Amino acid sequence: MSSFPRTATPPAASPPLPGTGMSMRAKWAIGSVIGGGALAGLLATGSSALALYFARRVITPARQRISNQEVLAVIRDGARQQVILAANEDTTVEGVYGLFFDGGKGHARIGRIVSYAPAERTVLREVEAVYSGDLSTAHRGWWSGAVYPDPAAVGLPAEDVLIEVDGGQAPAWLVRAGGQSRTWAVMVHGRGASRQEALRAVGPALELGLTSLLVSYRNDGLAPSADDGRYGLGSTEWRDVEAAITYALANGAEEIVLFGWSMGGAICLQTADLSRYRQLIRAMVLDAPVINWVNVLAHHAELNRIPSLVGRYGQLMLGHPLGRRLTGLAAPVDLKAMDWVSRAVELRTPTLILHSVDDEYVPYGPSATLAERNPEMVTFETFHHARHTKEWNVDPARWERLVKAWLRQQLVPRINPGQSYPGKAAT
């Protein structure tokens, strides 16, 4: 699963609120980003601190996940288990999901809804597997689209490999296809998630004869952290994906298919745009991708009841050379360069986008608009009911069918001018 900050007005003890750590020098730095008159109004209301808090939350990796899902009871019937959960917008959607508990040490696969009691605000679901931990002692956890903990849980033999990246080595799972696999799938998880997220796509990739490389990247808790310890929202992380492609090419790959979820989609788009290997990227499969960060950040400002002006001010802090002094970024984040709605015609890599119309974190509108503006390159498939990056979880059969059918078309061997297609006589 990929996550974005649920930002509320920061408590009095959380810096940098006016009077709790924001120095006069910092205030003057903000003043140079926007007009003095606007600054005076913002400082007077405390909006500058809220904008800064919002901006920092967007680019700062969370130290630990919030256990916001209540586990009310576990019912045993022989070897079979069911779990009673607090009903919410996640747990009342059909499908198969992961439930992490005990601070992430425990992991269970949760299946179909057995019963739902709206009046009691509870839902009873099947427990399909417990991979680690004791679910019967769990009281809280977090809901996830990551169903499997590792390739072994999917029944896949895998190798643990290390990829040379800035600052050290990034762990990755390598799942080899049988025979000589010249096309590799490089799979990129989303913000706040891990390579476990990509395990859902390895089966379809193997059916297509693709070797899969499930990567980690800076600040995700496995790969080395960036020097500034901040997300670049795709503007820096793509270099780690390029390093993964370097590894793939050194180990037999000749072409690449990129898979990306959420911010991983933004990272893939940057890779296809900026990497020295961009001509070798045959196709991209993007699940609930961030196509336009301005749209996503405005959406989250609205969700958290942050005035639109304050939200835009926070975006300005991310992109301005002086604003980075306050956010902690080593370099500004160019949100305009990652706006693929505006840059639609510049996308020249065939791309499949799968996106739920009910996505609560990354609105699907920009995905649809990108496909409308560049139908030659972009195929857009909508899902319903699925929460963010959980399209596969709601309907794995359809997700896999769409991906395999589309990729089969993209992976037809390329021909030289004048050369006939396989099985077709020359005319």
Could you walk me through the main structural features you see in this protein, from its secondary elements to its overall organization?
28% of the residues lie in helices and 24% in strands. The C terminus is likely disordered. Strands 7-8-10-9-11-12-13-14 form an eight-stranded mixed sheet, sandwiched between helices. A six-stranded antiparallel beta barrel has the order 1-2-5-4-3-6. The chain starts with 23 loop residues before the first helix and ends in a 17-residue tail after the last helix. The chain has twelve helices and 14 strands. Among the domains are: 76 residues; 213 residues, Rossmann fold, CATH 3.40.50.1820. Helix 3 crosses helix 8. It is an alpha/beta fold and 427 residues long.
Offer a concise description of the structure.
This protein has helices spanning 24-33, 36-45, 47-59, 202-207, 238-250, 263-274, 293-303, 308-319, 324-327, 365-373, 391-394, 396-410; strands at residues 69-77, 80-86, 97-101, 106-117, 122-132, 140-144, 159-165, 168-175, 183-188, 211-215, 255-261, 281-287, 351-356, 378-383. It is an alpha/beta fold and 427 residues long.
Fourth-level CATH superfamily of the domain at 151-291 and 339-410: Alpha/Beta hydrolase fold, catalytic domain
Q: Summarize the main sheet.
A: 8 strands, mixed
Radius of gyration: 23 Å
Q: Which structural class matches the secondary elements?
A: alpha/beta
Range of strand content: 15-25%
**Tally of helical runs:** 12
CATH fold naming of the domain at 151-291 and 339-410:
Rossmann fold
Question: Which whole number gives the mean pLDDT?
Answer: 88
User: Which spans have pLDDT < 50 for at least 5 consecutive residues?
Assistant: 6-40, 417-427
Shape: globular
Distance between the termini: 51 Å
Helix content: 25-40%
As laid out across the biggest beta sheet, the strand order is 7-8-10-9-11-12-13-14
CATH class of the domain at 151-291 and 339-410: Alpha Beta
CATH architecture of the domain at 151-291 and 339-410: 3-Layer(aba) Sandwich
Q: Report the strand count.
A: 14
